[in-house]
């Protein structure tokens, strides 16, 4: 196990030694000037690719290779150690910076990755050059820039080439980094090699631009692999031929050092031209593919949505209408587009719709939603809800408006019923307020010294007796119902003894036997010296309030019943009696939460009636409605009591199957399908029909939308299989 662990770092160390030894041999030791230092690129690539546990062993073996290569070149021990530290530092710093800026492995198909890689290489090379300059005893002025450029080129040219070659091995990343076939790659890279060799094999003409042309052709044809491999080919051929005394550089330069620096500059220009261009081209191609996929998905969504998707020009004329309009208006998209824009709208709603459109174009956010009536083919009107959104077009092109229009006829009528119920409750509350304002209130006083009682005229009127004689406290207590007299007498006595207030409700009996409901409140009364002198209070006949309260409670219950009925209308599909789309979607969201909380499976099934349009066309809409009611009833009977059946719209239904694994869900779907196929055939229930069913199971990361999408795709598979079938989503 141990030898397998060190195999990769050992291989990196051997490659590092070979590259370093070759570079030192070509430069004739420490005094020569190398065009690039490929060993740094090899180690940088290894630190990027290898896991964290192998990075330090990799650095260790590479350091050993560096020491051996520098020692073979005849350098002193101190210089060997200093140069090795500099070489290890450059790879370590570059890989650390790259992981900080870009946690994933650089793909060189994203411009940001190319920028991060280049910056990390330049900064690391600067660190390395500084360390080597100090280790070499601060030599001449050419040492620092020569080391910096040599190391930078080694990482910029070798590392991308190595990483892209590794990406070619992975089938998933191959297409992203290389756009052409193997034959095409071989041809273009051979062309780069041949052009470079031809240019640098002669010294008669300054044709340095030709390798750049060949490199650009390889970049356009192959992408990042073509750019990196082409630069690497030029970086190998050009220095070798120049070192052999060949090439066009001799026409301009005489010194080998000048030629080496010029080659370094030349390679930097090639790298800065090719690899960023390849990344931009890859980004352009990726964006093009994303746009094409987005357009395809949006078209599929518009064509299959139960809502009508409409695209308007900025003058308000529809230029596209999805097929769902057939279900709502019984008209084809072409018929609706050909009709005058405002003519099918209800006359009472036209001005409102026109004004809303103008406000929408001015950017009014309150104009994004409008509810209006639209005429159907049969002349009846249906309530529609349109949600608008302005879509910015390309520069110089007029903006468009996208609208999602849905049938809200049943919901709107239920909302009107709910509004009427609320108004009835508000009217009852208003009458109650009037009754409270009209209630009479009297006052009374009970002295502590002689126990005399005083009533105001209103108190006498409430008791139903004349004001000819003041009653005593005992007489006042006897007006209350016998069962209430002990309680009230005790409250008054305690208040007198403890000098505290009281508040009670009671019932008194008038001389004619009439019972009145009263409220009496008392507070202790003190003279200016603080001496307790008696009780003072109010006496109020609340009989009307009690009666009104009872009536209010009855009205409140009636209003609540009406509101509950209105909500039931919103939650129940008016035609079929099953759950409405709103109720079904809310139940789906709740079922997903419950399923994940309990750790139980959840399945959904979407089914629709096969060839339902043919039923309407052949037997009429009344028969079609009868079929919808029958299918909904049969579906409710076919599923479990814990399952929910809802109508999504038209002939499409949703079944929630909480706790059902795949086998049970498919069995229930089959049971539903066979039950529907066996039902019908009478005049009242419509002709026989079949249904196609798509079943999907909730996965860990699925949303309501994705779960419905899986079921919908399974439904289409069932239809593609010949209809009257049930299919489970893959």
Structure in words:
By secondary structure, the chain is an alpha+beta fold. It has 24 helices and 15 strands. The strands form 3 sheets. The protein has a 5-stranded antiparallel sheet, with helices on both faces. The protein has a 5-stranded antiparallel sheet with strand order 7-6-10-9-8, sandwiched between helices. It has a 5-stranded mixed sheet with strand order 12-13-11-14-15, sandwiched between helices. It starts with a helix and ends with a strand.
Poorly predicted parts: 29-33, 432-437
What summary fits the major beta sheet? 5 strands, antiparallel
Alpha-beta classification? alpha+beta
The largest sheet has its strands arranged as 2-1-5-4-3
Q: Count the helices. How many? A: 24
End-to-end gap: 41 Å
Protein name: diguanylate cyclase
Subcellular location: Cell membrane
Domain PAS: 294-364
Enzyme class: transferase
List the helices and strands and how they pair.
Blueprint: H1 2-26, H2 38-49, H3 55-72, H4 77-101, H5 111-135, H6 143-169, H7 171-177, H8 182-201, H9 209-222, H10 224-243, H11 256-304, E1 308-312, E2 318-321, H12 325-329, H13 333-338, H14 347-361, E3 369-375, E4 381-391, E5 400-407, H15 409-438, E6 441-447, E7 453-455, H16 457-463, H17 473-478, H18 485-498, E8 502-509, E9 515-526, E10 532-541, H19 543-571, H20 581-598, E11 602-609, H21 612-619, H22 621-638, E12 644-649, E13 652-658, H23 662-678, E14 691-697, H24 704-720, E15 726-728
Parallel strand pairs: 14-15
Antiparallel strand pairs: 1-2, 1-5, 3-4, 4-5, 6-7, 6-10, 8-9, 9-10, 11-13, 11-14, 12-13
Helix pairs in contact: 1-2, 1-3, 2-4, 2-6, 3-4, 4-5, 5-6, 6-7, 6-10, 6-11, 8-9, 8-10, 9-10, 9-11, 10-11, 15-19, 21-22, 22-23
Domain PAS: 294-364
Main location: membrane
InterPro entries: Diguanylate_Cyclase, GGDEF_dom, MASE1, Nucleotide_cyclase, PAC, PAS, PAS-assoc_C, PAS-like_dom_sf
